[in-house]
Specification:
The chain contains 7 helices and 19 strands. The two termini are 23 Å apart. The strands form 5 sheets. Strands 1, 2, 3, 4, 5, 6 and 19 form a 7-stranded mixed sheet that branches. By secondary structure, it is of the alpha/beta class. The radius of gyration is 21 Å and the shape is elongated.
Length: 302
C-alpha cells in the first residue's frame, strides 16, 4: 500500500526546502521529491541571499537538506515526478521509476528552465559565468568591466537601464526593439551605448568573452553579457492537474493567490514557476508561504 503523507512537495531547492521546513516544524508528515536539477546549477556561487552570500548553491541546498532531515516526519526521495493525479482525499505523484506517493496536499516547487536564444551560438557554455541574467545575483562580480545587454524581447530596455550601475554598458538591440525618443534619451543619460547592428558571434575562449562580432564585421569588446532568457516549465504536472497558467513577461507562470494556492484547491505552487520576479530570496519566501498555507488548510480540514 502507498504510504499516506500530509503534504507532497515536488522540488527540493530553495522553495521546496523552505516549504518543507515549515511543515516539518508543524510536525506534519512530508515527502520531498527532487530530481536534482535546480535552475541555478550553472552558477558557481549564490549572491544576495540572506546569510548565504557567496556560498555555492549546492552547498546551500545540502546544508538545508541536512537540517530538514533531522526532523523525524520528513522523508526525501530522489527522482523525477512524471505524473500527478487527483485522488480521493488528495493527490498522487508517480515517479519515473514507477513508484507512487500520496498526500492530502501538494506543493509544486518545480522551478523553470532558461531558454537561450538559438540564433547565437556560444551562449550555453558561458551561461552563469560570463553570460548572465540577473545583475543583482551576478553584477557585483563583473563590476567596472565592459558589459553588454543582448535584447531578446522588448523588455530588454529595462535591463539596459539597470546594468550601468555595475559598469560601462552597450545595449545590442538585435533588431528586436527600437527605443522611442524618450527611452533613448534616458539610456544616453545612463551612459548606455546603443548598438543596432545585430551580433553575429561571441569571441573569446569559453567560458570567457573577449568581444562580440557584429554582422558588419566590427568587434565590440565585452567582458560579460546580460540577457533576459525566456523560460519554460520544467514539467507538465501543473497542466496535468488543471492548474491555471498565465503568460508572464518571459514565460508561463502558475497562477496563485496570496497564499500560494493554485486554481486547484489543495495544490500550492512556490518558487520561480509561480512568479515573474525570480531570485533565491523570493523563491525561499514563497516556499515559506506555501508551507504555512498548506498547514493551515490541513488544520481547517481536520
Amino acid at each position: 500500500m502507498e504510504e499516506q503523507y500530509d503534504v507532497l512537495i515536488v522540488g527540493g531547492s530553495f522553495a521546496g526546502l523552505s516549504a518543507a521546513m515549515q511543515l516539518a516544524r508543524a510536525r506534519r508528515r512530508v515527502l520531498l521529491i527532487d530530481a536534482g536539477k535546480p535552475r541555478n546549477r550553472f552558477a558557481s556561487h549564490a549572491h544576495g541571499f540572506f546569510g548565504q552570500d557567496g556560498v555555492p548553491p549546492p552547498d546551500v541546498v545540502a546544508a538545508a537538506t541536512r537540517q530538514l532531515l533531522k526532523y523525524p516526519t520528513v522523508s526525501l526521495v530522489t527522482g523525477e515526478a512524471k505524473r500527478a493525479h487527483r485522488v480521493a482525499g488528495g493527490f498522487r505523484i508517480e515517479l519515473a521509476d514507477g513508484s507512487c506517493s500520496q498526500a492530502s496536499r501538494l506543493i509544486l516547487a518545480t522551478g523553470i528552465r532558461d531558454i537561450l536564444p538559438p540564433a547565437l551560438s556560444g551562449l550555453a557554455e558561458r551561461w552563469g559565468i560570463s553570460v548572465l541574467h540577473c545583475p543583482y545575483c551576478h553584477g557585483y562580480e563583473v563590476g567596472d568591466r565592459r558589459l553588454g545587454v543582448l535584447a531578446t524581447h522588448p523588455l530588454s530596455i529595462h535591463q539596459a537601464m539597470l546594468i550601468p550601475d555595475w559598469g560601462p554598458t552597450t545595449w545590442f538591440t538585435q533588431g528586436i526593439v527600437e527605443p522611442d525618443e524618450r527611452e533613448a534619451a534616458r539610456l544616453r543619460a545612463r551612459g548606455v551605448e546603443i548598438e543596432r547592428t545585430p551580433v553575429a558571434e561571441i569571441l573569446g575562449e569559453a567560458p570567457a568573452i573577449s568581444a562580440l562580432r557584429l554582422i558588419d564585421g566590427r568587434e565590440i569588446q565585452i567582458d560579460a553579457l546580460f540577457i533576459g532568457a525566456r523560460t519554460e516549465m520544467t514539467c507538465d504536472l501543473p497542466e496535468q492537474l488543471g492548474c491555471a497558467i498565465d503568460e508572464g513577461p518571459l514565460g508561463p507562470v502558475i497562477r496563485v493567490d496570496e497564499w500560494k494556492e493554485t486554481s486547484v484547491a489543495g495544490v500550492y505552487a512556490a518558487g520561480d514557476a509561480s512568479t515573474a520576479m525570480t531570485n533565491a530570496t523570493f523563491a525561499s519566501a514563497s516556499g515559506v508561504m506555501a508551507g504555512v498555507a498548506a498547514h493551515r488548510s490541513l488544520i481547517y480540514a481536520d
